[in-house]
Amino acid sequence: MRTAVVWDALRAVLAELAGATGREALGIVDAGGGTGGFAVPLAALGHTVTVVDPSPDSLAALERRAKERGVVVRGLQGDAADLGELLSPGHADLVLCHSVLEYVEDPVGALAAMAGLLRPGGAVSVLAANPVAAAIHRALAGQFDEARAALSDPLGSWGDRDPTPRRFTGETLTGLLGAAGLVAGPVHGVRVFADLVPSRLVDGEPGAAEALVALEEAASSHPVLRDIATQLHVVGRRPSA
Questions:
Q1: Half-sphere exposure (CA, 13 Å, Cβ side) for 140?
Q2: Which of 27, 63, 88, 158 is within CB 3.0–4.6 Å of 150 for a Cys-Cys bond?
Q3: What is the pTM assigned to this prediction?
Q4: How confident is the model over 91-112, as a mean pLDDT?
Q5: Are 195 and 137 in contact (CB under 8 A)?
Q6: Cβ atoms of 27 and 20 closer than 8 Å
């Protein structure tokens, strides 16, 4: 439910890349892919997937999850900044950068390293935290000063105790992609309502989960609602020529 909008976008990108390349099995790199929440399902679709993550524990969990699913996912230990050293240029048709830019020291450098892995026409899928949503969530928790801080801080942080070092508006994300030499597509909101609706309203009503997914999909491109989503998603393309 929380990732339905992202999966919709990924399926469209994968179909387009398969049509353009004539290859059903694409090369995919998941930067910071952790335990394989995206990598393993993508491998199950027949793609060749590599996860690069700094945590050995996460990579071990990835290996177990892939084995349980009966697929092979290559795991490499490293940071986003190490991608150019770990993998060769032109290695990937698609790179996932989900919940990574919030934690790297140099977001533009990280995206440039990912762009360097792409074949011409390839894509980078970026998913990042949104400062507006952080303000809403802090306000709903009664932390009004922290909510105001999230709106005014250049990095979108609400304070010293904030576990997320930085957040990004849609405009910032498209600018970062452009600085990395990628052409940004439209911005979509992810988890517009899912983090605000009490779980009892979803778990206790037949069909409620499916209805919430449909609502999330409708809200993801709404010109106002997408900007209050917990996360923002945008796909950047490497030009074909």
A1: 10
A2: 158
A3: 0.95
A4: 96
A5: yes
A6: no
